[in-house]
Design goal:
By secondary structure, this protein is mainly alpha-helical. The chain has 4 helices and 4 strands. It has helices at residues 2-10, 12-46, 71-76, 84-115; strands at 57-60, 80-82, 124-126, 133-135. The strands form 2 sheets. A two-stranded antiparallel sheet has the order 1-2. A two-stranded antiparallel ribbon has the order 3-4. A hairpin with a 6-residue loop joins strand 3 and strand 4 (133-135). The longest helix is centred in the N-terminal third of the chain and has 35 residues, at 12-46.
Length: 150
Amino acid sequence: MLKEFKEFVMRGNVVDMAVGIIIGAAFGSIINSLVTDVIMPPIGLLLGKVDFSNLYFILQEGEVAGPYGSLAEAQGVGAVTLNYGIFINTLVSFVIIALAVFLLIRAINRLQREEETPPEEPETKKCPFCMSEISIKATRCPNCTSQLEA
C-alpha cells in the first residue's frame, strides 16, 4: 500500500497540481496585499478618507453600547457586525485574480494557436469522369484520358 501511495504522489499530475496550489496561495496573498495596501487606500482617500476595512453595520450592540470607533473595537465588546467593507476588499481581490487568470489563459491559448500548423493544400483531386485520384495540376486524366477543366 505504501508503494502504491508513493507511485500516486509521484505521478506528474499530482505534483503539478500541488505546485499550482502552492503558487496559487502565494499569488492570492500577493493580490490581497495589493488590494488592501495599494488599491483601496487611494480609493478611500478619494471618497473622503474612507477605510474600507472599517465599514460595517451593527446588527446587535455589544456589552458596551456604541458608537464604536472601529470594527475591532465593536467586535472587542461583543457587537454583532455586518462587515461589508471587508467584503468589498475581498470582491476587488477576486476581480483582480479572475482578470489575471483570464489574461494567463488567453496568452496560453494564443501560444497554442500559433503552434498549430495550417492545413496543407491538397496535392490530388478526383477525376469527375472516372473518380480516380490524379494530380491537382493535371489537365487530362491519365486513367480515362478525359479533358479536365483548369
